[in-house]
Amino acid sequence: MDGTVHLSSMIHGMLAAGVWQDRRGANLLDGGCPYYGTYETADGGHMAVGALEPRFYAEFLRLLGVEDQAGAHADVTRWPALRARVTARFASRTREEWTAVFDGSDACVAPVLSLREAPHHPHLAARSTFTGHGGITQPAPAPRFSATPTTIRTGPARPGADTDDVARDWDVPRLLSPPPNPQ
Questions:
Q1: In angstroms, how far is CA 14 from the centroid of its own chain?
Q2: Of 76, 111, 146, which residue is a domain's last?
Q3: Of 173, 139, 175, 170, which Cα lies nearest the Cα of 160?
Q4: CATH number assigned to the domain comprising residue 101
Q5: What ranges does the record give for the region Disordered, renumbered to this chain (predicted)?
Q6: Residue 52 included in any domain
């Protein structure tokens, strides 16, 4: 809990400064901003948008084909109309088509990948973000340092795989399989 609260320090500072509203979906980083969020594509996929800075926002609008919305960046009253336009545009093509449109750009737009797709994404594969052990793909240890490489020693735990060991360690005999005979 303490770590999670610490991660919200910036938001608490923004609240104290009067630039954060204490309600969901009304702020720059909580889904309220139409150029920082996710959008469904024609095939049911999704694209993530994070075009916060003006130059990224301009590139985002240009590639999306809604350059006429340039003034909506800082005008919160225009955000609902901008969201409607962006939603409609993303719904007009597949995730793969939009990925090709934004690929290599500075628009800060990327496809939302499934857990099975993510390890195969070129960027994540090049960084060795995922690793395999025992035929199971899982996130690689992080952070990674060249002087102290890490390895995966075991695969992820399977539900119930270690119940007996844990039950013995914690002295909870009724969880043992099979449970001990009462004397």
A1: 22
A2: 111
A3: 175
A4: 3.30.1540.10
A5: 127-183
A6: yes
> pLDDT tens across 127-166, in order?
999 998 888 898 998 888 888 888 777 777 778 778 888 8
CA 133 – CA 51 distance, rounded (Å): 37
State which amino acid sits at residue 143: P
From the CB of residue 133, how many other CB atoms can be counted at a distance below 10 Å?
13
Residue 133, domain member (yes or no): no
Element (H, E) at 2: helix 2-7
Number of domains in the chain: 2
Find the domain containing 24 and state its range: 1-32
Taking the C-alpha atoms of residue 18 and residue 140, their distance in angstroms, rounded to an integer, is 40
Name the token pair of 23.
């309600």
Which position has the token pair 């035929």? 135
The model carries a pTM of: 0.77
Q: Return the structure tokens found at 60.
A: 């985002």
Q: Are 60 and 108 in contact (CB under 8 A)?
A: yes
